[in-house]
Amino acid sequence: MTNPKIALEWAGPGLREVCEAVGIPPVLTCGSCVDNSRLLVACSEIVREGGLGDDISQLPAAGACLESITEKAIAIGQYFVASGMMVIFSNEMLPIHGSQNVSDYLLNGIEKDLGGKWVLEADPVKAAEILLAQIESKRDALGINKKSERKLYDMADRRALIV
Fold first, then answer.
1. Contacts from 132-137 at CB under 8 Å and sequence distance 24+?
2. 85 vs 15, which has greater pLDDT?
3. Which of 108, 54, 112, 64 is nearest to 86 (CA)?
4. Could you tell me the residue range of the domain that residue 80 belongs to?
5. Cα separation, 23 vs 42, whole angstroms
6. What is the pLDDT of residues 59-69, one digit of tens each?
7. Are strands 117-120 and 86-89 parallel, antiparallel or unpaired?
8. Roughly what angle, to the nearest 10 degrees, separates helices 71-83 and 33-50?
9. Helices (runs of H) and strands (runs of E) counted in the chain
10. Residue 4 domain-assigned?
11. Mean pLDDT of the chain
């Protein structure tokens, strides 16, 4: 899903149209802190410039930490959660220790305050199903799962829009 030449056949028509126009695959993968922060900047720009939702928490996007090698992965995942995204972690528990109140908040209360949440799922197939369900529910909430004619705007079309 990260190869734009191969994966676009699996993308729906709207996603395929955007990916082809921008030249990106339907799934973006990254490893380092810098890459992850760039993904969140892109999400912020989608909200700010693209008009898709009012907050990152409304975007049809999610994070996945399917192989946690270091504590840094949890810190990066928390950055996504605090920014409003769901992050799936491939373990039955987060490697956090200390206060039960902090653990409870990170796993159960943070979504109410910030829109993001942790989901713990060790089975990769179930994890993928949870990710897809999250994305579809966000698409439904934004009203972008409806069949409609799509139009890619060129610069002249964008300038003609009344904002």
1. 134/62, 134/86, 135/60, 135/61, 135/62, 136/60
2. 85
3. 64
4. 56-146
5. 14
6. 999 988 877 66
7. parallel
8. 10
9. 8, 3
10. no
11. 83
Give how many domains the chain has, as a whole number. 1
Beta bridge partners of 88: 64, 119
pTM of the model: 0.73
Which DSSP string corresponds to 72-137? HHHHHHHHHHHHT-EEEESSSS-S--S-HHHHHIIIIIHHHHHS-EEEE---HHHHHHHHHHHHHH
Q: Residue 138: inside a domain, yes or no?
A: yes
> pLDDT confidence of 19, banded at 50, 70, 90?
confident
Q: Is residue 136 situated within a structural domain?
A: yes
Does 72 reside within a domain?
A: yes
The identity of residue 73, as a single letter, is: A
In contact, 81 and 114? CB cutoff 8 Å: yes
Contact in structure between 74 and 95 (CB atoms under 8 Å) = yes
